[in-house]
Amino acid sequence: MRRRAFIAAIGLAGTVLAAPGVATADTCEWVVSKVAVPDGYDPRSTKVEGTDSHGDYAGTSLRPGENTNDLIVWTGGKPRVVHELRHLRSLSMAGENSSGTVLVDGTIVAEGRRAVVLYSASGTTDLAAPNGYRLTGATAINERGDVLGHGERIADGRQVGILWSTIAVAPLIIDLTTGTPQGLDDDGTVLLRGREGKPGALWKSGQVTLLADEGRYTYAEAIRGGRVVGYQIGDRWPESQALLWDRGGNVRHVDGGGTAFAVNASGLITGERSTMVGPASVWRDTTFLGELPYPDGVTFVSELFVVGDDNSLFSHASDYGPVRWTCS
């Protein structure tokens, strides 16, 4: 079964290589810190789920006294609740790009529908479903502002992917025979996660490229810069192997990687070392760089990782709250 929120063992601080093209140094030390939350909000229900890679970031937190999330944006490390989206129930965040545009979805109860919304400092934009379809959620946003979501055909309820491309005149419908919408690269390539343990495929302009399958139960997690990261399950719990696919669907093993959950444009990968419950760690492409330090008192973090192009990392500790790593 699909594992969510696997724990990781204690990581040790260390000096590791920085991602290429970031700053001038070729080494850095990972510094961990706690992310501030808005007054009255519980850190344990607060998660950072995107960054603009310029020092600001965004996420969600459970609204005090209610069973719904609010969108939270951090500017200069200070959190702010986005009241403009409080009409959305069951709000979830799907990503943020470097322009600071945040992608969310949520239910408009009065209208009985799911909405996909872009939020930025300039306001909000509701994305419309193509004629004959209804929206069921949002998946990803890329650097040029393309948005990936999912929906269903009204006539028969058939599930589809929906791509709002900045270079297309109308939203594109994606057939989901080979998988479900999972990620979106900056060139418009869509990652489709496979079903029943299959890795899935890459979709671009209607052309499908299958991801290489090594015959084990596999989860494709994220795509960026032409790289797809994920992992496969071993013979016994908690054995696993982190994987890296290229644009052609060819696969390589990530050195010492148990899982891989996120990747940035320069190939910095986050995941868990050795097994599904190994220490939170970082790689560049398939090369192991080091384990991440944890705050005092924290012994594990969830699999949720955000990797900025400025090498800022975010995750979450269940009894602690959101965690940030910076490369100094």
UniProtKB/TrEMBL annotation:
Q: Where is the composition biased (Basic and acidic residues)?
A: 42-55
Q: What is this protein called?
A: Extracellular repeat, HAF family
Where in the sequence is the signal peptide annotated? 1-18
Which UniProt keywords are listed? Signal
Q: Where is this region: Disordered?
A: 42-63
